[in-house]
Amino acid sequence: MATRTDHSPATDAGQGRAPYRRFNALLIANRGEIACRIMRTARRMGLRTVVVYSEADRDAAHVREADEAVLIGPPPARDSYLAIDRIIEAARASGAQAVHPGYGFLSESAEFATACIKAGLVFVGPTTDMIAAMGSKARAKALMAEAGVPLVPGYHGEAQDEATLSGAAREIGYPVLIKASAGGGGRGMRIVREAAELAAAVTSAKREALSAFGDDHVLIEKYVENPRHIEVQVIGDTHGNLVSLFERECTLQRRHQKVIEEAPSATLDAAQRAAIGAAARRAAGAVGYVGAGTVEFVSDDRDFYFIEMNTRLQVEHPVTEMVTGVDLVEWQLRVAFGEKLPLAQEAIVLNGHAIEARVYAEDPARGFMPSVGRIARWQPPREEAGRVRVDTGFDAGDQVPPYYDAMLAKLIVWGEDRGAALARLQAALAEFEVGGVTTNLSFLAALMGHPAVVANAIDTGLIERELSALTPPQGALTGLEVGAAIAGILRDEARALDSRERQSPWLTGWLVAGARRRAFGLRDPHGHEQTAVLRHGRDGMQLIQGETRTPLAFRDSDGAELDLFLGGHKFRVAVTRDGRRLAVRTRDGHFQVTWLDPFGGEHDSEAGSGQIVAPLPGTVVAILVEVGDRLDKGAPILTLEAMKMEHTLRAPAVGVVRHLTCAVGDFVQEGGELADFEASEGGAEEGGDG
Ligand code: ADP
Questions:
Q1: What is the distance between the alpha carbons of residues 620 and 623, in angstroms, rounded to a whole number?
Q2: Which one of 39, 146, 222, 268 has the largest count of C-beta atoms within 10 Å of its C-beta?
Q3: CA of 261 to the centre of ligand 1 (A)
Q4: Fold of 228-470
């Protein structure tokens, strides 16, 4: 075990009393999958579990699973999951003696850690000093430079004036990356390729940083083109022991947010693995680190450079658990009890390969726009100890609220080697069924089947570059997809008949018409509509699409799955319906289809509309135009912040903004009107105004 000589047992921010001690009731200041995951281990260790929740989460899984749950406020995070006083009060009210912050929210807040300790609670994490030292990317970089950890060239000084920043950027050399010093989750980060773009990017990065972290300091780094992201899990105890648990490759990202994580990195050889592990221990050792943490590096395939240290459990910690057999939450709790780490460095061995895929409620084809609403169907793959693991905080019937992150689940698989893990991941993704909200499941399957991913020839820009290949335009649904959707509709009608629900409105379209032919209008997630005709004859059904006629039959089984026969070919498909929304799964992936009103009332109300509406519930954070402004098609109109991301709404055509019906700071519901936009006819008219 690496033993530190420069470090005495951690104290509570200078108050001379070790803050770590045995406890038997734990409050988890978080929600969703991570709250559930921490509870699993805490319960196994005999702890009483307490969670906090907002009004949006009354029925959420973490509330259902906890021994006790305390309501702490309204849905917005700043009034609930970020409200330090209310969480401390909840700990008091529930008799919890310790607090686990999870990740996100207050997990890296030195103020929160201090408040816990002041209230006599054990904070399951490092000391306040360590959080503060690493919490600012700028301060951390200064520390790392001293400790001899390799850094990306950059500016991380105090001065924030335009002249200093632009001078620094020039010296570093474009392209540069602006980062929020207090940042996390890719927020407040902007790539700037030319000097002319710097000022605008700094302004917008600062605005996002201020709203997300309450601190608008930025730093500038050399932008390493197409790097890999490799990070090392570390954990230290209060007895001077500090170990690393190998690395994770988190290179597959979109908008600087990880999508897929693997352990180990297939890129490193044994010598590189040893070197990056040692650098991470040096980085953590520089602050005498206690608790679980992650040291992050970017790599240009030859060298690696420190970018930051996260002083908490990471989203992707399960891949490390899968390849080391260590339960990191258990180790966190043991360290918080004041115990020694259970294993020495040499006893931590690497076994096989693990991959995690983050399943989000979002639409990759629409710029990863989050999807909110009710999960009508939820059927994750079956878990298999040590092989397939699903960490989630959702179940069928749950709402995906608009206030928080849109991650639905983490799917983690293990294999003897990377190839075996990839194959197992694909099988598990194909099994995963979600209905009611749009998910990235098909995207994940396409990504993990991409030749560059299979060959590990990846970099952080891969997803962006390959986006069109990864989200193929579903201009026309394939015959298999149409057949599956229609079979699903007929199956549901037949089931309704069987159960004698003769009142079901879904039956009338078929029966009243008495039709031998029935048309089905279907719309894919990208808005393309198509009609297929089903002909019902003495010899069975035929699906007519344009010139092709294919015999169609299906055999129902329990649940969502059915056997679909198209011609002589049998397919296994799955269809679930929530009103007119169908979630369909075929061998080609998952997709959502809207069944256009069977009674013929469907109109495309968007066409020709002059209103700019909110595509999802969110807060207006910037208005970028004035009434009367003439805009080119695609010009930005305003920025909406929803589900932790900024979304810029743009002019749908050349035209003029006639009215603004919102103000900065407004919270708008999905479909809420934001502005009136008048397209100019023909697009290019100038109109000769004076
Ligand atoms: P955050 O704390 O917001 O997650 P990080 O500093 O951890 O920000 O960086 C997130 C991601 O951004 C990294 O994984 C990497 O893909 C990319 N990145 C960070 N720094 C650089 C850099 N200097 N050059 C290129 N890419 C970078």
A1: 8
A2: 39
A3: 15
A4: D-amino Acid Aminotransferase; Chain A, domain 1 (3.30.470)
Instruction: Give the span between the Cα atoms of 456 and 448, in whole angstroms.
Output: 10
Sequence letter at residue 18: A
Catalytic residue check, 312: yes
Q: Which pair of tokens denotes residue 165?
A: 């920043």
Any idea how long the chain is? 690
Query: What is the per-residue pLDDT across 570-585, written as a single tens digit (0 to 9) for each?
Result: 999 999 887 788 888 8
Q: CATH for 153-222, among 3.90.1150.10, 1.10.3720.10, 3.30.470.10, 3.30.1490.20?
A: 3.30.1490.20
Q: Which range, of 272-276, 354-358, 599-603, 613-617, averages the lowest pLDDT?
A: 599-603
Topology given in CATH for the domain delimited by 611-679: OB fold (Dihydrolipoamide Acetyltransferase, E2P) (2.40.50)
- Distance (angstroms) between ligand 1 centre and the Cα of 614 equals 30
Which of helix, strand or coil describes residue 233? strand
Fold of 15-124: Rossmann fold (3.40.50)
Residue 17 reports pLDDT greater than 50? no
Residue 517 Cα distances to 138, 505, 534, 541, 580, angstroms: 68, 19, 6, 9, 20
State residue 284's pLDDT score. Answer: 97
Distance CA 141, CA 134 (A): 8
Of residues 254, 312, 334, 577, which has the active-site annotation? 312
Best probe residue, ligand 1, of 179, 192, 306, 459 (max atoms within 8 Å of C-beta): 179
Class of domain 479-595: alpha beta
Higher pLDDT pick, 515 / 253: 253
Separation CA 447–CA 428 (nearest Å): 14
Q: Tokens for 398, please give them.
A: 């749950």
Task: Using the structure block, give the residue that is written with the tokens 């039709």.
Answer: 515
Collapse the DSSP code of 116 into the 3-class scheme (helix H, G, I; strand E, B; otherwise coil) and give the result: helix
Ligand 1 centroid from CA 260, angstroms: 15
**Predicted structure pTM score:** 0.77
**pLDDT per position as a tens digit, 233-292:** 999 999 999 999 999 999 999 988 999 999 999 999 999 999 999 999 999 999 999 999
Give the binding-site residues of ligand 1, using a 6 Å CB cut-off: 152, 177, 179, 183-187, 189, 221-224, 227, 229, 253, 256, 296, 298, 307-308, 460
Cα separation, 510 vs 489, in Å, equals 11
